[in-house]
Amino acid sequence: MKLSVALIALNIAASALAQSVTSPDVAPDGRVTFRLWAPRATSVQVHCEGVKASEMEKNDAGVWSLTTEPLQPDIYAYSFTVDGVKTLDPRNPLIKYNLLNIDSQVHVPGPASLPWEVNDVPHGVVHHHFYKSAIAGDERDYYVYTPPGYDPAQARRYPVLYLLHGYSDAADAWTSVGLANVILDNLIARGEARPMIVVMPLGYGTMEVVTGGWGRLRNRNLWQTNLEKFQKTLLDEVLPRVDAAYKTEPRREDRAIAGLSMGGAESLLTGLNSLNQFAYVGAFSSGGLGADFSKDFPGLDKSANAKLRLLWIGCGEQDGLFAPNQRFCDWLTAQGIHHAWVHIPGQHSFRVWRPLLAKFAPLLFQEASGSDPNL
Amino acid sequence: MKLSVALIALNIAASALAQSVTSPDVAPDGRVTFRLWAPRATSVQVHCEGVKASEMEKNDAGVWSLTTEPLQPDIYAYSFTVDGVKTLDPRNPLIKYNLLNIDSQVHVPGPASLPWEVNDVPHGVVHHHFYKSAIAGDERDYYVYTPPGYDPAQARRYPVLYLLHGYSDAADAWTSVGLANVILDNLIARGEARPMIVVMPLGYGTMEVVTGGWGRLRNRNLWQTNLEKFQKTLLDEVLPRVDAAYKTEPRREDRAIAGLSMGGAESLLTGLNSLNQFAYVGAFSSGGLGADFSKDFPGLDKSANAKLRLLWIGCGEQDGLFAPNQRFCDWLTAQGIHHAWVHIPGQHSFRVWRPLLAKFAPLLFQEASGSDPNL
Q1: Angle formed at CA B337 by CA B335 and CA B341, multiple of 5 degrees
Q2: One-character DSSP codes across B312-355
Q3: What does DSSP assign to residue A193?
């Protein structure tokens, strides 16, 4: 009896201790302290983007901790490994959602001028749509950002950016992790980007390519089916729905397509093979094209320059996909196809894709509508 | 050199093993097998709603597992505890998001007639809004569900249900966990509920009440400030924005308010004290009213019956808040205030709130609009 009371008291104290832990703890100079209450664990590591150190140290109360060097203002993904098992930070509601790999995130705040900082500016709305896809054979979703001031009751129409997520992401990745809505709000408020609609579809032609886990990436046939069916869901299902439900300018010179990683490959495959639909094409850290680009883009040559208002290839310089992207740019050059090749420091991460979107979006739809002689 | 190669090979094999684990694994008879790869752990438990067993057993490959008895079709929250540390199921993307306590979820599928099963019926849209609250002093969000067929370009107007989440939830709880949009889609498709707009605001008057953790619940002054400021954000900020942006019927007889737990208390406090704004009031497993109901509802008496088209109190029979809810119903009876008191088996869980919403929504807005003699 006494023992069980003592055990209950101990459990309550332990639970209170677990809940008194603050993590992540961001100091004004950008140092981040990660903490985890795990008295019975024998080793705990923290794996945080941009941080080399990982071994955490335990104090007498069973709380493991690690303090980083000062970090640049940014949003960093991290997780703990407790005796070999990955866990989220239980004290932190800011997560990086993903179908295969959920992480925690820490926001080291920076000046209001950073593209992803939420500012007191007019905000757009993010609309979540659901439909039954005849092509993919499943119930699926897509998101639509409408800019501040968008009013379906008014006549004004807007250009549209189709923005595609990467492999293992869900359809919400560009808003909930990439903060595309925040980035657009800020650019529009500063007059640096034209008000635009942004459509963020589910980027899989077949969910089988992701529900089976990373191993499915080795199945080249499945990958091709995925890419081809995705293009059909986008062009035959999502695009007509968006043009019917929103005040879009439904013309190629008011339509852009861009994406990250798998979504970068999808943007190139969809955009460059459908120039009657898109005048602007962007690819951030793209991955998943075939070895022979001429097979992915049959007949693509310099005649495309007359239709392409922008072809923009971006990548992080420490990304494993940097070399293939450079190789693709070399191939474009050999074909005489105009393009921009933009690289910034960074790996295969939203820490690169948020800045790339902030560089790319201001370049869109800057020519006067309706003046395209190539239609 | 050889050793490090062997270690790398071992790590790759281990990682492949971790990724080959299937969890949760739902059998056709409703048995669920939970699995976690944790070869170095000394004890692993799974805590799943509706399941008594928790101790998992390890096999020779370091995979811990537990198989349940057959579970009723439903959506169950669960988590693992590895050597005392709570973790999500790393193999499962279905999570129950929450500001203080993120869990995994397992869906045991059932017949299409269950309110929360996604069916091939017309789907509404969920709109995510962001604004700077002058009352709360922060940037915050709310969600708006528009029913299938809603068209801002047409004249048709819709009644509105304000639907409030519980303590520790974020503004997305009623859609991402409660599946309110799926439930409404299904009810509307079957003709069992009137097409309506559902507004799901952030339910905190001050974020301090939740960012500080569960301990803040003991601070009665902070709790009162939270409840009062929430009502002001709802009535002075969210409601006018919704009536301006959507095709609402902006009248009390076309407006309902309901919520769960803290949101139940907020619905009662807001609705019963603002009968000039709401004709329908619902509270699911409500918690957080004061000890003296006459102080929370000054002047509320049977004269309210003429204005109230529905006052609906629901609760799970195994909920710790069942007794206080029954006591509140007794108080209503003593005041002569008509109400429904609905209880179903279950605890303080979305397993109760999804069915309660499915019972409540069909009762709303069934009287012809504009016929209220009490305006």
Answers
A1: 115
A2: EEEEETT-TTHHHHHHHHHHHHHHT---EEEEES--SSHHHHHH
A3: S
Chain A positions touching B40 (Cβ under 8 A) are 42, 83-85
Residue predicted with more confidence, A372 or B283:
B283
Residues of B in contact with A34 (CB under 8 A): none
Return d(Cα B41, Cα A84) in angstroms, integer: 8
Beta strands in A222-338 (DSSP E): 255-260, 280-284, 310-316
Residue B315: exposure state from Cβ atoms within 10 A (0-12, 13-18, ≥19)? buried
Q: How many CB atoms lie within 10 A of CB B78?
A: 23
The 10 Å Cβ neighbour count of residue A294 is: 12
Nearest CA in chain B to A168: B93
Within 13 Å, how many C-alpha atoms sit on residue A33's CB side? Answer: 11
Look-up of token digits 């905190």:
B204
Return the structure tokens found at B43: 């004890």
- Copy the structure tokens of residue A136: 């993919």
DSSP state, B220? Answer: H
d(CA A38, CA A34): 13
ipTM of the complex: 0.94
A11: pLDDT strictly greater than 70: no
Reading phi first (left if > 0) and then psi (alpha if -120 to 50, else beta), residue B84 is in left
Task: Tell me the C-alpha distance between A237 and A133, whole Å.
Answer: 7
Confirm if B32 and B108 have CB atoms less than 8 A apart. yes
Cβ atoms of residues A34 and A54 within 8 Å: no
Spatial separation of the C-alpha atoms in residues B31 and B71, rounded to whole Å: 6
Note whether B161 and B258 are within 8 A (CB).
Answer: yes
Minimum distance, in Å, between the CA of residue A56 and any CA atom of chain B: 15
In angstroms, the CA A174 to CA A360 distance is 14
And the tokens for B238? 């969210």
Residue of B10, B58, B85 to mutate when probing chain A, most A C-beta within 10 A: B85
Q: What would the pLDDT profile of B209-265 be if each residue is shown by its tens digit?
A: 998 778 778 889 999 999 999 999 999 999 999 999 999 999 999 999 999 999 999
